[in-house]
TrEMBL record:
Pyruvate binds at residues 52, 208. GO terms for biological process: N-acetylneuraminate catabolic process. Belongs to the DapA family. It comes from Halanaerobium congolense. This is N-acetylneuraminate lyase. Transmembrane segments: none annotated. Coiled coil: none annotated. The active site is at 140 (proton donor/acceptor), 166 (schiff-base intermediate with substrate). The keyword Transmembrane helix does not apply. Keywords: Lyase, Schiff base.
Length: 308
């Protein structure tokens, strides 16, 4: 059974990476290690098998396995949100039912993609999944899966069980608008890590994204600064986040983050092909570049930089 109310799912929520072994099988002990590491750091929840979790590169059975491992390891310490998106309603329902049975606290999904599904298809997709279990559904708006128009977001919000949106876009006035029009209880998670403080200033309740796997402490500071109306701290910390992210996204940054987690002694394994996995030479280059950034901008308080 889920243990957390959707209104408790706020704050910094890593879009958890799936830890694969070098042969691309799921590395269960690595997965557990990463979950413990992040919970010990104080993250406020975990979002599973989404983009960063490489969910679309996994079979249904593998996605279920990851959900089971993480729920078991997290052991009700933080809420668990499971991305169940596929391009077909039936499979997504199966994943949602599984997440519910295993004790997840919420489900989430990108809209169906690849074909040019129209507003009605998308509406029906969400309605069918949302009705399949009692869990709250968090819609996931991201350009990669086809941006959901603002009016469609409003229609989706009227579906029972649709309780919020993970909003990965830079048009943050829409976050303010959503909070305004749909009410404070409709949860919004800002999904562009480079825009975290902006999302929060516009009213987002939390942050769900990739870089919270690597440096949750930085974003927890930003979250706190915004909540304390400390504009100066939020801005300085966001600027550091941008410097690190801007460098990282030139590469296959899931691999880069896995390597950097290794500097903290956390085994975050490998990505699945066709994503790249960088070797020792590139890793040394990343280290040198991050060290330069740290020294140049006198960046403090980010563990993976301090570990170099
Ligand atoms: O929404 C993430 N998107 C993807 C989640 O992984 C595609 C973001 O956290 C970005 O990775 C991040 C870097 O651009 O903002």
């Amino acid at each position: 059974m889920s243990k957390f109310d959707v209104q408790e799912m706020k704050g910094v929520i890593p879009a958890l990476m799936t830890v694969f072994a070098e042969d691309e099988t799921i590395d269960e002990s690595g997965m557990r290690e990463l979950v413990d590491h992040l919970i010990n750091k104080g993250v406020n929840g975990l979002y599973l098998t989404g983009s960063t979790g490489e969910g679309f590169l996994m079979s249904m059975e593998e996605r279920k396995k990851v959900v089971e491992i993480v729920i078991d390891e997290a052991d009700n310490r933080v809420p668990i949100m499971v991305h169940v998106g596929t391009i077909g309603t039936k499979n997504s329902i199966k994943l949602a039912e599984h997440a519910y049975e295993k004790g997840a606290d919420a489900v989430s999904s990108v809209p169906p993609f690849y074909w040019n599904f129209d507003e009605e298809h998308i509406y029906n997709y969400y309605k069918d999944i949302a009705e399949a279990t009692p869990l709250p559904m968090i819609v996931y708006n991201i350009k990669l899966a086809g941006t959901i128009a603002y009016d469609s977001i409003k229609k989706l919000a009227a579906i029972e069980n649709v309780k919020g949106i993970k909003y990965t876009a830079t048009s943050h006035f829409e976050i303010a608008s959503i909070k305004d029009e749909l009410g404070e209880d409709f949860l919004v998670y800002s999904g562009a890590d480079e825009m975290a403080s902006s999302g929060l200033f516009n009213g987002a309740d939390g942050l769900i994204g990739s870089f919270y796997n690597l440096m949750p402490e930085l974003f927890m500071d930003i979250y706190e600064a915004v909540n304390n109306n400390d504009l100066k701290t939020a801005r300085i910390k966001q600027q550091n986040a941008v410097r690190i992210i801007k460098y990282s996204v030139q590469y296959d940054f899931y691999s880069l983050m896995r390597l950097a987690l290794g500097w903290l002694g956390v085994n975050a394994g490998y990505s699945r092909r066709p994503f790249k996995n960088y070797g020792a030479e590139k890793e040394a280059e990343f280290k040198a570049e991050f060290k330069k950034l740290k020294d140049k901008y006198k960046i403090e308080g980010i563990d993976f930089l301090d570990a170099i």
